[in-house]
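re: the backbone from monday

yeah here it is again, tokenized this time
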């Protein structure tokens, strides 16, 4: 387990470099990431490379016993390159060409930019191929950030047509798959196919879905170009890329074959403000632990191996609406939280607050004058506390799919329907019970999991339906959420009753659906106990049970009253529950608790909001994201490796055993 830091030596006087590197080593830092925005410094003019400054820094890092992670500098092509080859620039949907002046202004499908990428990456890889201090590479930086995954230039139009030809073969097959007879949208030839453009009404949903697929595929292909070049130079390097919080426009699973490890950039107080609803005071100080954990579990699960946090928030940051100072100890808490969910390294961004450019209000581990900031003390303490530990073993899987997010985003059918929020409703309930979770795509083998939760399989193929059916028949416990089996893979409504190919497994079908704003009563009651009611939100389906047993009914006296809202069905050796509403917290917790108990999954008692536990390699982390102290009780003789049974605000404790079964926590006044 390691701590690292991101460093920009090109921003500071040369005479400061040795002091910085020595102070990093003194803090217990093991990895230094560099060079992601340094193209202009590395190549002041075409073909004239200057590696001497980077050589010196790499030598210093090795001299002090640390290791270097270099980045390809392609996220920010320099002005001389834009002037020389302006065709590399991105184009917005309305035809506006994006200008140089910040970053990520290039097009992934630009043949010119791919040529320039190959040239600069090859030069860097060749330079450091035999340098033992360089142990790995990050390709580019935050692909797609600032809304740059999808470009609408001529190169993208040509590439999209080629992509569609390869996918469908004939234009008639495309017309049939998309359903283009609606509004007389048939194509006579692939040359008529265009990227989405400004139109009077909404876009055709199948066009939008395929353009999203194409755009993600384009980035995967561009990343493969870089990864292949790096491996050709030295196949012992690891290759990674740093993804982002709930980043929708890239299918991270598709990058798996080209990366040795996945990394992502964690900014807890900023990400909490990107979520729906009001951000609490505790979240402004330390973030939302379930949102953080979802990202950790997602990026760990892409390759089913430990991941890195390549950028960890070190203090206040420049980009969210508000930037309260993190709570005392928060930067340490975040590193341990990542470790508990499978991280093998946490790299703080950045070493020192910058004096220039767009990120002057972004803290570093050191202040602008070079003296230690609050994050430096947290990072130093954390470096002394981390220890080697085995991988995460998760008994439960949450099924997640980018294509479903794209399809539901285009036709959400309600202003507050958000795919990621729906996933979080079910995922948070699992985390409230202290259960480790893998986030997996629908195509992943599920047989190793005791329980599976699939909150929104809106697009559903026959093969995925068959896989889920076999999972249940062989003894698996499955929980399905609303809007399941509604459409086919082309984003067309199925002609059979929903949940389509899962209807026989569920033992029920959807008769009607509705989206309900706040002025409607939104509660359901247990069929076996009308006195136990639960709130739900946004989405409601009226189910007609066939073989299934009714679990929930709609309350109140409106037209849906008494209709079935959720069912349970036994199939083979297992069981499936279909919940036709978007559950609020109490209902989600009840559904998950029943699922875990049926599956025999060891769990904690429901934990207070902001208190979470996680298990890894036989250890249990208890993490307090609250401003109140908590008391923890474990039914075990385990001892505390770190901390104890009282956990202070924004602090943690680590037990030297897996004690989740029977663990409970209460908030102290």
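seq for it, each position gets an aa:
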């Amino acid at each position: 387990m390691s701590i690292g830091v991101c460093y920009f030596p090109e921003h500071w006087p040369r005479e400061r470099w040795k002091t910085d590197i020595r102070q990093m080593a003194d803090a217990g830092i093991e990895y230094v990431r560099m060079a992601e925005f340094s193209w202009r410094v590395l190549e002041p003019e075409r073909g004239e490379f200057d590696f001497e400054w980077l050589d010196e820094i790499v030598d210093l890092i090795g001299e002090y016993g640390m290791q270097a992670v270099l980045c390809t500098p392609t996220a920010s092509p320099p002005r001389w390159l834009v002037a020389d080859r302006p065709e590399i620039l991105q184009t917005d949907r309305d035809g506006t060409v994006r200008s140089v002046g910040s970053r990520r202004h290039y097009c992934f499908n630009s043949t010119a930019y791919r040529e320039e990428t190959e040239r600069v990456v090859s030069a860097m890889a060749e330079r450091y191929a035999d340098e033992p201090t360089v142990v790995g590479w990050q390709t580019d930086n935050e692909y797609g950030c600032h809304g740059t995954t999808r470009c609408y230039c001529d190169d993208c139009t040509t590439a999209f047509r080629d992509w569609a030809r390869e996918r469908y073969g004939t234009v008639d097959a495309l017309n049939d798959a998309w359903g283009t007879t609606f509004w007389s949208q048939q194509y006579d030839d692939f040359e008529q196919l265009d990227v989405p453009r400004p139109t009077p009404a909404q876009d055709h949903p199948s066009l939008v879905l395929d353009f999203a697929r194409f755009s993600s595929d384009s980035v995967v292909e561009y990343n493969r170009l870089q990864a292949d070049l790096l491996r050709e130079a030295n196949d012992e390097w690891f290759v990674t890329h740093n993804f982002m919080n709930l980043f929708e426009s890239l299918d991270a699973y598709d990058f798996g074959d080209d990366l040795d490890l996945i990394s992502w950039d964690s900014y807890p107080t900023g990400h909490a403000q990107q979520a729906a609803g009001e951000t609490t005071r505790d979240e402004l100080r330390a973030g939302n632990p379930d949102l953080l954990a979802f990202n950790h579990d997602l990026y760990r699960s892409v390759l089913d191996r430990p991941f890195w946090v390549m950028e960890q928030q070190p203090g206040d940051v420049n980009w969210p609406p508000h930037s309260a100072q993190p709570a005392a100890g928060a930067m340490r808490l975040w590193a341990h939280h990542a470790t508990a969910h499978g991280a093998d390294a946490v790299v703080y961004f950045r070493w020192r607050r910058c004096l220039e450019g767009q990120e002057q209000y972004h803290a570093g581990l050191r202040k602008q004058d070079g003296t230690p900031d609050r994050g430096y003390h947290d990072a130093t303490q954390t470096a002394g506390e981390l220890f080697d530990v085995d991988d995460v073993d998760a008994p439960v899987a949450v099924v997640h799919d980018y294509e479903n997010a794209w399809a539901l985003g285009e036709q959400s059918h309600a202003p507050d329907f958000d795919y990621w929020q729906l996933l979080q409703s079910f995922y948070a309930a699992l985390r409230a019970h202290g259960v480790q979770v893998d986030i997996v795509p629908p195509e992943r083998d599920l047989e190793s999991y005791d329980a599976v939760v699939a909150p929104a399989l809106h697009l559903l193929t026959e093969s995925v339906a068959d896989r889920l059916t076999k999972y249940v028949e062989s003894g698996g416990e499955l929980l399905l959420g609303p809007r399941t089996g509604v459409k086919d893979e082309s984003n067309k409504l199925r002609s059979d009753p929903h949940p389509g190919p899962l209807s026989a497994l569920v033992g029920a079908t959807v008769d009607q659906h509705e989206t309900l704003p706040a002025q409607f009563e939104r509660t359901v009651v247990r069929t076996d106990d009308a006195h136990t009611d639960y709130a739900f939100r946004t989405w409601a389906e009226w189910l007609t049970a066939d073989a299934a047993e009714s679990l929930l009914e709609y309350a109140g006296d409106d037209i849906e009253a008494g209709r079935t809202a959720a069912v349970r069905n036994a199939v083979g050796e297992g069981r499936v529950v279909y919940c036709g509403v978007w559950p609020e917290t109490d209902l989600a917790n009840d559904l998950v608790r029943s699922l875990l108990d049926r599956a025999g999954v060891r769990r904690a008692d429901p934990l207070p909001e902001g208190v979470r536990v996680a298990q890894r390699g036989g250890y249990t982390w208890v993490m307090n994201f609250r401003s109140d102290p908590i008391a923890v009780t474990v039914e075990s003789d385990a001892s505390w490796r770190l901390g104890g049974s009282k956990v202070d605000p924004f602090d943690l404790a680590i037990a030297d055993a897996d004690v989740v079964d029977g663990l409970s926590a209460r908030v102290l006044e």
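Residues 205-233 form the longest helix (29 residues). Residues 498 and 510 are 5 Å apart (CA to CA).
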